[in-house]
Amino acid sequence: MCIIFFKFDPRPATKNAYRLILAANRDEIYNRPSKAADFWGSSNEILSGLDLEEGKEGGSWLGISKRGKLAALTNYMEGKPNPEALGRGFLVSNFLTDNLDSYSYLRKVSSEGHLYNGFNLLAADFKTNEDMLCYYGNKGSPEPIRLKPAGIYGLSNSLLETPWRKLQYGKSLFTSVLSKALPPDGLVQELLHILNNEELNTPDPLQESQGEGHYSKSMLRALSAVCVRSPGYGTRTNTVILVDTEGHVTFTERTMLNCNVSQWSTNSFHFKIHDS
């Protein structure tokens, strides 16, 4: 399970505003091997965490490149996954290394959506002349959609903007923080605080009906929080990404160490997007 809150505003009204504000949690088995966010590849162009699970090495859940390409993935809550399906994490990595724009890439992905277990994929291009943010979920519409500017969105483990209680609650907190005039460091800290909210949002008939027969009642309760905590599984990475009007990117990742919910490491990266 995962959750993402984001505001997309390619032409913000004020100079100190942001073209993108994104706050995301990665929920995963605590002992699944992975690499914390860092630049990878010979050119140091791409920044992301990487999956190190056997057979899935090199996939990712969230990343951004210095060329202004961004992708983020959540799984779709469903029954037993098909073990023969393609690895979903490569949908992120492939976009970050591809030359296709976000909409064209998602159109390509939509034609192959049946080859994967359920997923949601955000893909964006941040360019000098025009920003574009698109969405595709292989359990929803057959075509990707371009998201409207100046929108605040939430995505968890159902289709975009599905009104699960945890999503609505987290989105309200996210919206409240954005209404404050905070410096970048303060904004990052407030968003990390939201991502670590462990309040249970139950009962939630909508979420429960989607997970019925696939998850125990106790697990569904645990999954109703923005920050998931259960034995051996839960939120193990928080990520906040800010893209300002000049193309400066702040990428902050807080990640669990040693499968221990009391041990965390926080790292921030700063760079400027270039079009070439």
Word description of this protein:
This protein is α+β, with helices and mostly antiparallel strands. The protein has one domain: Penicillin V Acylase, Chain A (4-Layer Sandwich). Helix content is about 20%, strand content about 35%. Strands 1, 2, 10, 11, 12, 13 and 14 form a seven-stranded antiparallel β-sheet that branches. Strand 7 (about 120-125) and strand 8 form a beta hairpin. Helix 3 packs antiparallel against helix 4. The protein is globular, with a radius of gyration of 17 Å. It starts with a strand and ends with a strand. The model has no long low-confidence stretch (mean pLDDT about 95).
Rounded Rg: 17 Å
What is the number of E strands? 14
CATH architectural name? 4-Layer Sandwich
Number of separate structural domains: 1
Largest sheet: 7 strands, antiparallel
N/C terminus separation:
35 Å
Q: What CATH first level would be assigned? A: Alpha Beta
Q: What letter string, H or E per element, gives the SSE order? A: EEEEEEHHEEEEHHHHEEEE
| Uncertain ranges | none
Q: How many alpha or pi helices?
A: 6
CATH superfamily: Penicillin V Acylase, Chain A
pLDDT average, as an integer? 95
Q: Could you say which overall geometry the principal axes of the C-alpha atoms support?
A: globular
